[in-house]
Amino acid sequence: MPKSPREEASPQPHDALFQWTFSQREHGAGLLKAALPPALASAVDFSTLRVEKGSFVDRALRSRHSDLVLSARMRGEPVYFYALIEQQRRVEALMVLRILVYMTRLWEQLVRDRPRMKVLPPIIPILLHHSDTGWTAATAFQDVVAAEESVRSALRPYIPHFELLLVDLSEGQPSRLVDQALTALGQVVLGLLSVAGDSARLERELGRVAAAVREILEAPDALAALEALVRYLLATHPGLSVKKVTRLLEKAGGPQTTEAMMTVLDEIELRGERRGKREGKREGKREGKREGERNGRAKMLLQQMEARFGAVSADVATRIEAADETALDRWAVRVLTAPTPEEVIDDSADDTGQPRRAARKTAARKRPQRAKPAS
């Protein structure tokens, strides 16, 4: 049975939408232009922008954080942008330390890949955050290192010194983004990430970015973008039906959205059917393989029995051909010692092939007699 659009959604929808959108050069460049200070943005050659492979987030934390590494040339030299998006609605006090760890991992990888490297390229850390309170923790690493004021200046040379470039998507907080630099899809994606499952805010946010939604629908990749948005909304707003999500997007995008939404939902359903068929075929192959192995083991057991006892009866052969793997394992051991074919498959027998009652009698006969006390 094909999965519904909601069941098809990614188990980590924030990560999926963020990665899919900003891994594309056009949208990634828009995000950086909107977030970077003008002096840095003007120095970057965005035509050289590319996505770097790998994630530096601890595996255990990937349900809460996801990262994206982009690189470009800045005044002819390489520069890296490490973007981390939080998938939790609380402020982590030592996030600046965690990001330093991730930056160090990136530098270590660069040195491993280029062992002759003599100097390190700059990494600009970008944190995208949303919560009920907005970001309240330190953005500068030196601010999380405790030191008395009287010795702080003397300690400064020995403390790492850098700041996060914070993009706060929380409601009512200044995001410090230049919205005009974002692509239409970038605006909508950041808007949806900012509401992060808050259905009460969703309609307001879609109204705010309605012009961007309409622009998305006019782009060459409109259907792919709309599908990504639909999947994200269904995954992060479990209280909203497919019909309600469709109505919200149609309200934001206007009449042209209706036909596009029908196409997208049909495509999601079709992909679900294809995936269901593929999974069914894979399961069928696995089941066929297991059955083939079982048949092979049954055939081998019959050959062993015929080699030891000669031809076996039809009843014995039928039981062996119908037996499961557990029984075949047991009988494959018992065929070495059982006196008759029937006792090989007699599950009242012990693993030597002897009936359990007979085995107990044999054991009793072999048990040494207790010596009688001297009179």
Secondary-structure map:
Elements (H helix, E strand, L loop, with lengths): L4 H4 L4 H10 L2 H11 L2 H4 L2 E9 L12 E10 L2 E10 L8 H19 L9 E7 L19 H7 L9 E4 L15 H12 L3 H10 L1 H8 L4 H15 L5 H12 L2 H54 L4 H9 L2 H10 L6 H4 L11 H11 L9
Parallel strand pairs: 3-4, 4-5
Antiparallel strand pairs: 1-2, 2-3
Helix pairs in contact: 2-7, 2-10, 7-8, 7-9, 9-11, 10-12, 11-12, 12-13, 12-14
3D structure, described in words:
By secondary structure, this protein is α/β, with parallel strands linked by helices. The protein folds into 2 domains: 5-145 and 156-254, no CATH class; 298-364, no CATH class. It has helices spanning 5-8, 13-22, 25-35, 38-41, 95-113, 149-155, 184-195, 199-208, 210-217, 222-236, 242-253, 256-309, 314-322, 325-334, 341-344, 356-366; strands spanning 44-52, 65-74, 77-86, 123-129, 165-168. Strands 1-2-3-4-5 form a 5-stranded mixed β-sheet. Helix 2 (13-22) packs antiparallel against helix 7 (184-195). The chain is elongated and about 90 Å long. Residues 1-10 and 357-364 have low confidence and may be disordered.
Please count the helical segments.
16
Please provide the ordered H/E string of secondary-structure elements: HHHHEEEHEHEHHHHHHHHHH
Overall mean pLDDT:
82
Instruction: Calculate the terminal CA-CA distance, rounded to whole Å.
Output: 84 Å
> Which strand order spans the largest sheet, edge to edge or round the barrel?
1-2-3-4-5
